Amino acid sequence: MPLSDTQVRNLKAQPSAKKYSDGGGLHLLVTPGASKLWRLQYRFEGKQKLLALGSYPAVGLADARRKRDDAKKVLAAGTDPSQHQKKEKLRQAGSNANTFDEISKEFLSRVEREGKAAVTVAKKKWLLALATPDLGTRPITDISAAEVLVPLRRIEASGNYETARRLRSTIGQVFRFAIATARAENDPTGGLKGALIAPTVTHRPAFTDRKAVGGLLRAIATYDGMPETKAALQLMAYLYPRPGELRQAEWPEFDMENAVWTIPETRAKMRREHRKPLPSQALAILKDVQKHTGDGKFVFPSTASRFRPMSENTLNGALRRLGFTGDEVTSHGFRATASSLLNESGKWSSDAIEAELAHVGADEVRRAYHRALYWDDRVKMAQWWADELDVMRAPALTGAFA
């Protein structure tokens, strides 16, 4: 006679284990310790076998009957339910180890081992954290494009279109890492191209008019804050590196005798060493700065600690103090100023200009071509540019530490 919920609930422990049949091979074993264990008896290949289906009340009567019926379907298909159960447990264990969150952590670890900049790793970690609430615990093989779209739409709805676009790309990197390590077969983010709102491209503010550039340079010459900050702004104009490359510059990178600044690959954005020729004006500024910070590691140390580089907000803050708004010019804008006016001059090859800006060429051959063939042109261009800035700035030619 089949069991009832009330009967199962009220069954008490006996001095010895006792079975209560529900039919179809299913029974409830009540132990002397009062445990209530569901078991299924069946025959496979002529042998009597027993399959554990869980314990009551975690597995209720209805659940136990469903598990019994599922096991019988497996048996009817010619498979031993016990072996099937073991394989399912292994599969589930594998799925738990291959969740999106676990594979994301492995992916980030690999990115770190590849020597990517700390800021790059931190950005990817931050982006993936945005997807964790929706995808983190899901086995990566089970995640569909529709599921990936959930966190992307949420971010997009807040107006952060660029963040949504970058998150889609980073999630795709995780899936491709899973494919490369044989834990996934496809990347669902590929089908989401075009599904997101395209962000509006905004160019960094910069002066590209010679008169405006001259006014900026004269303003910098009057800066009355920290002399190192003034020198850094002047070098941004003369050398137009990426701001982080200059802020974090260390003294061993500068070969004053040969007038070369070698930015190591660990700090260069494109993860390859970049050499920049130093015009005489830049050398003079560096020699002045060396009198003040040359006994330390950083050319431009933080005001809070000589063991840390200048803050990323220092240069832009100085430009704001000089009266320039963020819509007019930023520290990164010196690169756009140089690129625009160098190209406008017609004196220099666009490839030489691109090489000096450390932009990636079309391929490895072209990049090697940039570095080798255009070095002499870049040396001449560096001095010409510095001289042109002095002309634009005239008549004020105040030194950084004057």
The low-confidence runs, each spanning 5 or more residues with pLDDT under 50, are: 361-366, 396-402
Number of helices: 16
Mean pLDDT: 87
Strand content of the residues, in percent? Answer: 5-15%
Proper CATH architecture of the largest domain: Orthogonal Bundle
Please outline the helices and strands.
Blueprint: H1 5-10, E1 18-23, E2 26-30, E3 36-44, E4 47-56, H2 61-76, H3 81-97, H4 100-113, H5 118-135, H6 145-157, H7 161-180, H8 210-221, H9 227-239, H10 243-247, E5 254-255, E6 260-263, E7 274-277, H11 280-293, H12 314-321, H13 333-345, H14 350-356, H15 364-373, H16 375-393
Antiparallel strand pairs: 1-2, 2-3, 3-4, 5-6, 6-7
Helix pairs in contact: 4-5, 4-7, 5-6, 5-7, 6-7, 8-16, 9-11
Question: If you had to describe this structure to a student in words, what would you say it looks like?
Answer:
The chain is of the alpha+beta class. It has 3 domains: 5-93, Integrase, DNA-binding domain (Double Stranded RNA Binding Domain, 2-Layer Sandwich), CATH 3.30.160.390; 100-192, Orthogonal Bundle (DNA polymerase, domain 1), CATH 1.10.150; 210-393, hpI Integrase, Chain A, CATH 1.10.443.10. It is built from 16 helices and 7 strands. A 4-stranded antiparallel β-sheet has the order 1-2-3-4, with helices on one face. The chain has a 3-stranded antiparallel β-sheet with strand order 5-6-7. Strand 3 and strand 4 (47-56) form a beta hairpin. Helix 4 runs antiparallel to helix 5 (118-135). It is elongated.
